[in-house]
Amino acid sequence: MRVLSWVYLAAAYAFVFLPVVVLVAFSFQDGRLPVPPFQGVTLDWYAAVLGDRDLVAALVNSAMVATVSSLVALVLGFLAAHALARVRLPGTMLLRGMLIAPMTVSYLIIALGLLALFNQMGVRLSLWTAGIGHVVINLPLCFAISYAAMGDHQKSAERAARDLGAPEWKVLFLVSAPMLAAPLAAAFFLSVTFSWDEFIIAFLLTRFDVTLPVEIWSMLKSGLSPATNAVGSLVFLVSVTLVVVLEIFVFRRVK
User: Fold this and answer.
1) What keywords were assigned to this record (predicted)?
2) 124 — phi, psi (to 5°)?
3) Dihedrals φ, ψ of 161, to 5°?
4) How many helices (H) and strands (E) does the chain have?
5) Would you say 140 and 99 are in contact if contact means Cβ atoms under 8 Å apart?
6) Of the spans 86-95, 137-146, 168-177, which averages the highest pLDDT?
7) Which of 19-23, 169-173, 210-214, 217-221 has the highest mean pLDDT?
8) What are the structural domains, with CATH classification, of the chain?
């Protein structure tokens, strides 16, 4: 039974990571196509990618959209979680359900709905509209993590701060938020990870300035090449780095 467990675990890891290994390996292909046989190792494709102005601009756009949208989603999610956890409101369960509902909706439906809304309002598609879309999909995650982390021990600290004369905004940002630093950091990094490689919303809600996944899709229209593998490897590297940083500085500290 133990052997079968190890075999199953190895098969699961191979199923998940084998495509990534192939992607990274053929990003070093010394040839025009990322297909067998392997013709040698070269860094020319990475040099070409990093020297491509459009790709670098798209990478910067992705980083900006991911960071700003995640910060906005984190603040809004934290404020909503604090309000619903600390104040008794009519229909609290319904409000919680409405905030979490976007997690159950397809990104395509969300993007089409926002696209119709922006068209009706006459809003020009840009990185800002894509950022709004990413706030919509990341706010439920930030709310859920923040709400789950709020406990009774924080209520006592907040009550003590109010008794000492602290205004409500100081209680919120100097007492409540620091006590939830680890869960809030986890919510932020996860939001950045999801926003970093999100394609559907970024594709439908941008026009001239695009994010990196959209730029990669444009490259794929002209066919496969080791350059697309190199870009994919860089995207994977950034995502893995964020997860490792999250594990080292947040989850391990919580444990």
Assistant:
1) Cell membrane, Membrane, Transmembrane, Transmembrane helix, Transport
2) -75, 135
3) -65, -40
4) 14, 0
5) yes
6) 137-146
7) 210-214
8) 57-254 (1.10.3720.10)
Q: 140 with 100: CB under 8 angstroms?
A: yes
Closest alpha carbon to 76 in 187, 157, 186, 242: 187
pTM of the model: 0.79
**CA–CA gap between residue 18 and residue 44 (Å, rounded):** 24
Nearest to 235 by CA among 58, 31, 104, 65: 58
Residue that the structure tokens 């949208």 belong to: 69
Residue with tokens 């950022």: 131
For 129, the enclosing helix (H) or strand (E) is helix 127-149
Q: Tell me if 208 sits within 8 A of 119, measured CB to CB.
A: no
The answer to whether residue 119 scores a pLDDT higher than 70 is yes
Residue with tokens 């109010």: 162
Helix (H, G, I), strand (E, B) or coil at 232: helix
Q: Give the C-alpha separation, 172 to 120, whole Å.
A: 37
